[in-house]
Automatic annotation (TrEMBL):
One of its GO terms (cellular component) is plasma membrane. It comes from the Bacteria. The chain crosses the membrane at residues 44-62, 69-87, 99-120, 132-152, 158-180, 201-222, 234-255, 267-285, 291-309, 330-352, 358-377. Residues 4-386 form the Major facilitator superfamily (MFS) profile domain. This is MFS transporter. Residues 391-410 are annotated as: Disordered. Residues 394-403 have a biased composition (Basic and acidic residues). It comes from Allosaccharopolyspora coralli. Keywords: Cell membrane, Membrane, Transmembrane, Transmembrane helix. The keyword Transmembrane helix applies. Pfam families: MFS_1 (PF07690). It is found in: Cell membrane. It is a multi-pass membrane protein. One of its GO terms (molecular function) is transmembrane transporter activity.
Amino acid sequence: MPIALLALAIAAFGIGTTEFVIMGLLPEVAQDMGVSISAAGNYISLYALGVVIGAPLLTAAGSRARRKTMLLSTMGLFTVGNLAAALAPTHELLLASRFLSGLPHGAFFGVGAVVAARLADPDKRATAVSRMFIGLTVANIIGVPIGTLLGQQFGWRWTFAMVAVIGVAAWTAVTVLVPQAEQEQQTGLRTELRAFREPQVWLALGVVVFGFGALFSFYSYITPVLTQVTGFAAASVPILLALMGVGMTVGTWLGGILADVAPMRTLFAFLSALVVALLAFSALAHNAVAAAAGLFLVGATAFAAIPSIQMRIMDKAASAPSLASASIQSAFNIANSIGAWLGGLVIAGGLGLLAPSWVGATLALIGIGIAAVAVILDGGVRPRAPKLVASYRTQRERSRTESASESTTG
């Protein structure tokens, strides 16, 4: 894999850290800012709103810019946003800083996925994209726990200062390691928007909204499940969430490899496995070992499907993939909102803390249904790399022939 992917992974690590670390620091931030926990929850919401708005807006604004320029610009804005958060003197300015930090999130991942795919060999594009997203999953294992501990020990402002430093490191790494494309097609906004005339792009985004809304329905309420249903101590929750982060990392790595051979089969397989994992968790959550294993499997199966759907959208918007690719991040945040809302709805309805797992399984099934419609309209499931398979078979036959020849000669 090209070393330039390391630069993209470092940036993804920083983005993942700032997105999720605020959840563990809400009490400290709320107390320091003199607001309630519910009001502090808007630091999460404003970041998500920034992602939804910024993904299409910034990508469209930079549609005629070179992709490396877009990567540097978005990472620069990300760094400024987190530095502003570290220095924000008031609740209102911290809200604005969180919104600013979220704006470049989707645009960076959208353009970064296109760059990662084009840095790799044609039969390794999904693997390359998955390597970038591994930075995001590793943030849940390393970045978020370290950031939370730093904020609890020395103050939450130091956490955002740390993320700003990561942003500077990522900006430097992109400058040094990511090559400027010698020939790069300048698409323009009109061409980028034309990709959304393709129904398959909308179907793929539908898979993201429902298929991955399943994960957020489950994940949004996992802490009370682990403490009140399974019986874990509150101090154990960060370790368990890190275990889920390990599952996400393993799933992203494996999903990228399999998506290079058969993307839609990989998507169907892992969304189906996600349904099974969610239902199994709801049935076995009272057992500590089973619950821990379930966390790992839910994270792994959900994230293993991401490279497939990322490549699906980029393939269907091949002439202008940046805006369509960035829109995936908007779709993920819509999935987050829908999953969390539906999960909260069934809990409020008295169905219990495990009910969001059933909601998640239902959403994943809807995602599978949308993917099935897309495949039917597309004429069936085909492997991504038939030439690779044919090349492997030819090489194998050649080896057999050479071995037979050597035996005859001997």
